[in-house]
Amino acid sequence: MLWRSVDISRCEYSFLIEGMGWEDGCIGPVAHLVTDVSTIQMMRAAEVGNFLSVSKIHLIQPPATNNQGSYTMEPLSDIRIQAGTERNPVYEFVTDVGRIYTSARQ
After folding, report:
1. What is the pLDDT of residues 34-86, one digit of tens each?
2. SS in 3 state form for the chain?
């Protein structure tokens, strides 16, 4: 482990990325906590980090976005850009159970 604790935003989405990759010179399960979609895309393409393949992405919702007073985490099935926002992307995060969350400021 490279760190003992991580600060997670109380207002912005975060993501837990799981997959297979290089860890201590061996291939095995790896996981990273990231805060932006571009890093997820680079990890999926094995352009950054130690990932060889990504198997699961979890959306971590902070209390400010979920009205539950605590963090929640759900597996994602898709990340897409809302139509018409290509210049300044607004992302939609689609969970495995079909819930859709947006990166647009509320």
Report:
1. 999 999 988 888 777 788 889 999 999 998 888 888 999 999 999 999 999 99
2. CCCCCCCCCCCCCEEEEEEEEEECCEEEEEEEEECCHHHHHHHHCCCCCCEEEEEEEEEEECHHHHCCCCCEEEEEEEEEECCCCCCCCCEEEEECCCCEEECCCC
User: Mean of the pLDDT values across residues 6-10?
Assistant: 82
Enumerate the β-bridge partners of residue 29: 20
81 with 91: CB under 8 angstroms? yes
Q: How many CB atoms lie within 10 A of CB 57?
A: 20
Question: What is the C-alpha separation between 58 and 79, in angstroms, rounded?
Answer: 11
Residue 17's closest CA among 4, 2, 34, 5?
34
